[in-house]
């Protein structure tokens, strides 16, 4: 189980030319204070992708002679991720950009099974070329994705984009689908932007770029945020059922949960990204009102359905001693 201070590792996969490096470059240029490390996995002796992002990333490692999920020894990849996770000042996110020939399920398995408390797997983003979608077999890749980014959405008609989206939904009914242009995904969809005190009298380069460039340059693909608050304790079993059978389009969830007596008087910090689920036990402050406060982020979600499903998680009767065990499996 990952430690609460471990660095999230996000995998970005997709066919050659789908826009993986474009997405990574976009995140680096518009990080808004997020410190990003990258493990670039170009397939070939000359690592062109690493050259493209050099100078923009906070820390970088590169595997230039093979694919992270097959040709490169898993221990080597784990060692490189561990070194990136140990960088000081601490990184907020590590992005693994897979080669265009990497098998997404194998990549996800390699990252998810790594045993290192310094970092933890935080999901798979699958880049799909909306123009070339019909030419590739993405069936298995879509099924293992935590977020599907339909890149180059501006280059197809509305009907064609709807057809691509429908095909993705057919393969994976619950996965969030995000149409984009030039890989413009808001970093806040992928990770919490840290609150860091700005240096007095000085703006960072990305802040300057953000403030001075045209709005269209920074227009991000839209996503939703749904809030849920209750002062009644949640039933652990019902909440775990909700998380296992989550609403379509839900990608992230975060916040504090009150399980009442089932949680032995502790509050639980929930962090959900795709299939990656973690809880951290905290103490309530003496003056803090005990309540559950959650924010759920995704695409094309029905806010009323999400809130209703969470309302059904409110405890109707005192839980038994075994109720919390499902939560503790994912607790640090």
From TrEMBL:
InterPro entries per UniProt: CobW-likC_sf (IPR036627), CobW-like_C (IPR011629), CobW/HypB/UreG_nucleotide-bd (IPR003495), P-loop_NTPase (IPR027417), Zinc-reg_GTPase_activator (IPR051316)
Statement: the UniProt record of this protein carries the keyword Hydrolase: yes
Gene Ontology MF terms: hydrolase activity; nucleotide binding
Keywords, in A-Z order: Chaperone, Hydrolase, Nucleotide-binding
Signal peptide span: none
Annotated CobW C-terminal domain residues: 223-314
Entry GO CC: cytoplasm
Keyword Lyase: no
CDD domains, sorted: CobW-like
Catalytic activity, reaction form: GTP + H2O = GDP + phosphate + H(+)
Top-level taxon in the UniProt lineage: Bacteria
Family of this protein: Belongs to the SIMIBI class G3E GTPase family. ZNG1 subfamily.
Protein name as catalogued: Cobalamin biosynthesis protein
